[in-house]
Amino acid sequence: MTPSRRLTLAVSLLAALGAWSTTASAQSLPDLKGRTIVAVTENAYPPLNFKDPKTGQSVGWEYDVFNEIAKRLNAKVDWKLTSWDTMIEAVRKGQFDVGMDGITIKDDRKKQVDFSDAYMVSEQFMMVRANEKRFTDAKGFKANPKLLVGAQNGTTNFYTAVYEVLDGNEKNPRIKLYETFGLSMQALKAGDVDTVLTDGVSSQGYVKAFPDTYKVVGKPMGREEFGFIYKKGSDLVKPINAALKQMKADGTLKKFDQKWFVDYKLNQ
């Protein structure tokens, strides 16, 4: 056999092995046989889930990722909406099969619902108005009793504000509560509050979309992992984890990271 034929054969074998590996990996995922998964989100947490201002369509990183998961598992998704403050309880009761809203994996929540493997790791940052000069970090914010923070009750940004920015008092009057994250950001823009805490993903999206309106100050706080939630004992946990693992390995999650955290512009 000539060197050139050996090379051709080697390349062909590698290509065949690669194709077999990809096929085998895909085949290793469970087949849900066309099952419909009822998925719920809040649709108010860009760029993870939100209503596109141009098209009116529900879009975002979590939509793309979970639709891809369903495709790989031979399942369909029936998307529903609910408020954040009712989501965990509704999933716990089985009203929805799976919930997502940048939900931090926490021990107290594990007592109520099952979690997927973490699909994203993030930290909390202080969002402020672009012209803010009164403070540059959490310490400076805490020292000025006139400054207010906006948050959603029961969220990671709420608890980080309470325990890492302020004094540990969950009833502190310096915390102004809002029904959605979007409303808290509108309050920040309007000057009703002076900071809103959010994860790195969301803060990057807002600053990139509205550089003349918002900026980030201070150091990151409260490292967190996000996961999907399910009713206790759900048979969807293992197949969805398997699909997530495959998508991480083949670069699909990175592709959606690029799409939503780098390329997409919220206000364009």
Topology:
Layout: H1 3-27, E1 35-41, E2 44-45, E3 49-51, E4 58-59, H2 61-72, E5 75-81, H3 84-92, E6 98-99, H4 107-110, E7 114-115, E8 120-129, H5 138-143, E9 149-151, H6 156-165, E10 175-177, H7 181-190, E11 195-199, H8 200-209, E12 214-226, E13 229-230, H9 237-249, H10 252-263
Parallel strand pairs: 1-5, 1-6, 9-10, 9-11
Antiparallel strand pairs: 2-3, 3-4, 7-13, 8-11, 8-12
Could you explain the architecture of this structure?
- With 268 residues, the protein is an alpha/beta fold.
- The chain folds into 2 domains: 31-119 and 227-263, D-Maltodextrin-Binding Protein, domain 2; 122-222, 3-Layer(aba) Sandwich (D-Maltodextrin-Binding Protein, domain 2).
- The protein is 41% helix and 23% strand.
- The strands form 4 sheets. The protein has a 5-stranded mixed sheet, sandwiched between helices. A 3-stranded parallel sheet has the order 5-1-6, sandwiched between helices.
- The chain starts with a helix and ends in a 5-residue tail after the last helix.
